Amino acid sequence: SIFLAAVSVLILEDVTLGVSALLAPAAALFLFSLFVKARLGGQTGDILGAGQQLAEVSVLLTILAIVGGGA
Is 11 helix (H, G, I), strand (E, B) or coil? Predict the structure, then answer.
């Protein structure tokens, strides 16, 4: 997938960026799983899809924040 290709290239290019891009979705998914378990008591297929989207967005936002999204 594009996600795995982007992260692997980032790890080869810049270790700090690559590690950050891997830790951000892990933290986001952990917090999301706690929220889902508290609110719904478990997970469904919709939750899995939302988790995948959350992971991808968190990677992209992390890359944007580190590489420089500023003007």
Answer: helix
User: CB-based contacts of 8: which residues, under 8 Å, 6+ apart?
Assistant: 18
Tokens of 59: 């990677």
Compare 20 and 36 and report the one with higher pLDDT.
36
Q: How far apart, in Å, are the Cα atoms of 47 and each of 12, 25, 36?
A: 32, 15, 8
Output the DSSP codes for 13-57: H-HHHHHHHHHHHHHHHHHHHHHHHHHHSS--HHHHHHHHHHHHH
24-64 tens-digit pLDDT: 888 999 999 999 999 998 888 899 999 999 988 888 888 78
